[in-house]
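Notebook entry, structure prediction.
Reason for the run: the old model in the group folder had no record of what sequence produced it. Starting over properly, with the input documented here first.
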Amino acid sequence: MFYLKLCKKKAAYKAKPISKLHLDLSKIKKTYKTSFSTTKLIVIETEGLEIIVQEDGELLFKNSKDKKLMKMLSINAINNFDKKYCKSQYLLQLKEIFKNEK
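New structure, fully documented this time:
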């Protein structure tokens, strides 16, 4: 699980996992178009967004205000790149997003 909120400077949204994760950045780099990478973070481009993905699972969404899209991308990133994350958690979170949408 994670929470989504504005970053401190209110310039972008971040999705932060409630418990620490360890994402495989090399796998992410092979899957998404990347514009920058280090050993601790990677910048990917998907769905028209630039997303900074940190090794600990924190995501920073640049140039978007679409919370539903950011939540979906967060869940997908965790589901695809964290081996400990199970399908039941993934489906429960997706259900929660759509339950709260009108």
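Summary: The domain at 2-100 is CATH 3.30.310 (TATA-Binding Protein).
The old model has been moved to the deprecated folder.
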